[in-house]
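Please, structure for the following, as tokens.
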Amino acid sequence: MKRILLICFEVFVLMLIMGILSWIVSSDWRKNKAEEYYRQSKQSTIVQERLILLEKANTIYKSQENSFRLAQTYAEIGQTDRAMKVLMKLDSIQSKNFLGEILIKKGDYQEAKNVFLSQNKPDIKTLMGLIEAEMKLGNYEEAKKHSEDLLRQDNSSEALCKTISLILSNETKEAFNYFKKAKNCQNEYLKKFFQEHQENQNPDYLKLKGAAFHYQVGYLELALQEILALQKENPYYRDAFILGYQIYKATQNQAETQKQKEKVLNLDPLYEFEKA
């Protein structure tokens, strides 16, 4: 009886060892196959083919790296919801930073802020995203505090931190000079801030906005006078002729509407007019 029990135990141990070895071999095979799919995806120029290969890789061998690659491809082709679904299952700082970036682009600034704050050890990219989210939410003091955290991590961010401080002090011109010096300028909020500020300092832009306001409230004659004067001053200002086209169209002057349209297309052949 003891002999039989011993044999059974030896058989059980042998099967267990074989099972473990089989799992190890299978795991290595799946990992290698996933890497093969990934290499093929990098060589493919067809987006859908790349996506299929990456989905296969992620199915046979799930890893943080494979899942992140898949999320990147989803985002690249505009499938941000699917990218977010993959990223939400990952816990690497890289994946959370990428998720935060997508949320900012989608306009979900509060959720982006929550994602960035959920990281125990935020890196430079985390803090950059957090600053952008805070500024989008209007939390300027919080943005300033995070910029100080960023400065402690990376001295090269000093110019960017100074930029934010100067904006909060309404020293826009000096802030722009610091922003141009910053090594870490990948902050879309600040880029847009300075672009809009620069437009608001342009006299032609201000005249265009004035004429557009009068057009919107129904003072068509006044709007037309202003826009024709602007067109005379700057005959290459495409947007002035777009507004002129809209005003003449509202007055049902078909001949002048057509002239304005032709001028727009001469300045910008790719411009597409809204269909009536």
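The chain has 15 helices and no strands. Residues 47-185 form a domain with the Serine Threonine Protein Phosphatase 5, Tetratricopeptide repeat fold (CATH 1.25.40.10).
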